[in-house]
């Protein structure tokens, strides 16, 4: 298999082009649609570079795979689907995310059954990509819909883990659960030690290069939040205390209302313009609970 990583620095996100060179079949994992919240402009240049690379290598993009509904960037899956005709997929837990954030944004007409995606994965599902077989692992905790895509010695793990020096993702978003995240990480740590864990994010210090993958062995040994010796209750206590001090991601509101629609903007108003909503002086948890 051929794996080409692309780093989007504004959100610190990795996008991957995964391909079977023998057949030319390819998938894009976690494509980024860069967005400027000041102007409201979405820029296709980064996503376009991924498709240009696929074309240059002679690959057909057949699948667009999301590891979860991202809260820090807009997905470019919808834009790529229109450009390529590829099918779009994510974990079945996206329905829970849709239910929660349909209430936040008052999307009363949104079908919260995941139908905007072409396929919803359950734990243990497989997907053929040319001669490659992609195996799906449910890895919730950061969000309710988190999945990992395993193929050969590679695992695309979304936000389940970060690089060892950065630790793990937050669990305080609606549907997140620190205990579940610990269990998901433990499942990854049971994979062969040489398995390459391809990360969704890295936030390197100035002057250093971002890390796109680490081995299971490296993460078990060096991850500052959850090594092979970390107990579940210890991790949950650490993660809960840490999350209580974090602010919301800069792009959470535009990201989630686009990402629950599969990377499409909300339906345009009668003037032909699509608008994004920002709840005024409202707590997200209260909106979800209906208070």
Would you give an account of this structure?
- The radius of gyration is 18 Å and the shape is globular.
- The strands form 3 sheets. It has a 6-stranded mixed β-sheet, covered by helices on one side.
- Helix content is 26%, strand content 24%.
- It has 291 residues and is α/β, with parallel strands linked by helices.
- Helix 4 (178-189) packs across helix 6 (232-243).
- The protein has a single domain, classed as Metallo-beta-lactamase, Chain A (4-Layer Sandwich), CATH 3.60.15.10.
Radius of gyration, in Å, reads 18 Å
Distance between the termini: 50 Å
Which percent range fits the helix content? 25-40%
Query: What's the order of the H and E elements?
Result: EEEEEHEEHEHEEEEEHEEHHHH
Question: How many alpha or pi helices?
Answer: 8
Low-confidence runs: none
Describe the structure concisely for a colleague.
The protein is of the alpha/beta class.
Question: Key features?
Answer:
six-stranded mixed sheet, globular, about 290 residues, Metallo-beta-lactamase, Chain A, alpha/beta, about 25% helix
Helix and strand topology:
Layout: E1 2-8, E2 13-20, E3 25-29, E4 32-36, E5 41-43, H1 45-56, E6 60-65, E7 74-75, H2 77-84, E8 87-91, H3 94-104, E9 119-121, E10 126-129, E11 132-138, E12 147-151, E13 154-156, H4 178-189, E14 196-198, E15 213-215, H5 216-222, H6 232-243, H7 252-259, H8 284-289
């Amino acid at each position: 298999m051929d794996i080409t990583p692309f780093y989007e620095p504004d959100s610190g996100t990795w996008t991957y082009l995964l391909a079977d060179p023998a057949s030319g079949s390819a998938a894009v994992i976690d494509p980024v649609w860069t967005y400027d919240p000041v102007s409201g402009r979405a820029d296709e240049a980064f996503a376009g570079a991924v498709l240009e690379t696929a074309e240059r290598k002679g690959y057909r993009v057949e699948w667009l795979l999301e590891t979860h509904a991202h809260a820090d960037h807009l997905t470019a899956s919808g834009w790529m689907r229109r450009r390529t005709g590829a099918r779009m997929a994510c974990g079945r837990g996206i329905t829970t995310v849709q239910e929660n954030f349909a209430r936040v944004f008052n999307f009363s007409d949104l079908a919260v059954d995941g139908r905007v995606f072409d396929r919803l994965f359950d734990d243990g599902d497989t997907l053929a990509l040319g001669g490659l077989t992609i195996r799906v692992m449910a890895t919730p905790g950061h969000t309710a819909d988190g999945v990992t895509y395993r193929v050969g010695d590679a695992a695309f793990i979304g936000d389940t883990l970060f690089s060892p020096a950065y630790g793990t993702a937050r669990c305080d978003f609606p549907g997140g659960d620190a205990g579940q995240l610990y269990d998901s990480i433990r499942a990854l740590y049971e994979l062969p030690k040489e398995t390459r864990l391809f990360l969704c994010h890295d936030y390197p210090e100035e002057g250093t290069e971002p890390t796109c993958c680490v081995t299971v062995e490296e993460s078990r040994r060096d991850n500052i939040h959850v090594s092979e010796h970390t107990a579940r209750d210890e991790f949950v206590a650490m993660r809960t205390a840490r999350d209580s001090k974090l602010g919301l991601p800069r792009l959470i509101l535009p990201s989630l209302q686009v990402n629950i629609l599969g990377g499409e903007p909300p339906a345009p108003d009668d003037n032909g313009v699509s608008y994004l909503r920002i709840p005024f002086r409202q707590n997200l948890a209260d909106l979800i609970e209906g208070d």
